[in-house]
Amino acid sequence: MESVLVRAQVPRSSLGHGEMGSVYLAHDDRLDRMVALRILHLHLMATGELRRRFEREAKLTARLDHPGIVALKPFDRGVD
Predict the structure, then answer these.
(1) What one-character DSSP code corresponds to residue 69?
(2) Domain range holding 15?
(3) Is the residue at 43 inside a domain?
(4) Residue 23 located in a structural domain
(5) E runs forming strands in 1-80
(6) Would the pTM count as exceeding 0.70?
(7) Which of the four, 19, 50, 53, 77, has the lowest number of CB atoms within 10 Å?
(8) Which residues on adjacent β-strands are paired with residue 26?
(9) Does residue 49 sit within a domain?
(10) Neighbouring residues of 41: CB distance < 8 A, sequence distance ≥ 6
(11) CA dihedral 32, 8, 26, 23 (to 10 degrees)
């Protein structure tokens, strides 16, 4: 599987795979902590609508604020 990695986040193990991408347990070198890293499948990056949907979902999720919800940190497009 090809994917674009977000800089400074090193995947350690797979947490799951879905229709749009994969989620990995990763180490964020900048913050020195473990994070969940969601990566859109590379073949979907070329599809503008799916890419926009992925970004919309990230922006909506970032607005959520609740103790039972993991906070979404800034996302990176990797390669445009």
Answers:
(1) S
(2) 9-63
(3) yes
(4) yes
(5) 9-17, 21-28, 33-40
(6) no
(7) 19
(8) 11, 35
(9) yes
(10) 1, 3, 20, 21, 22
(11) 140
Q: How confident is the model at residue 16 (pLDDT cuts 50, 70, 90)?
A: very high
Q: Could you give the CA distance from residue 10 to residue 29 in angstroms, rounded to a whole number?
A: 8
- Tokens representing residue 1 in the block: 């599987």
Q: Evaluate whether 30 touches 8 at the Cβ level (below 8 Å).
A: yes
What 3-state DSSP class applies to 61?
helix
Contact 45/54 with Cβ under 8 angstroms? Answer: no
Place of tokens 């347990």: 25
Q: Is 34 inside any structural domain?
A: yes
Domain count, the chain: 1
* Residue 14: strand pairing partners: 24
Structure confidence by residue, pLDDT tens digits, 18-73: 887 888 888 887 778 888 888 888 877 777 787 788 788 888 887 888 888 767 66
Strand partners, 11: 26
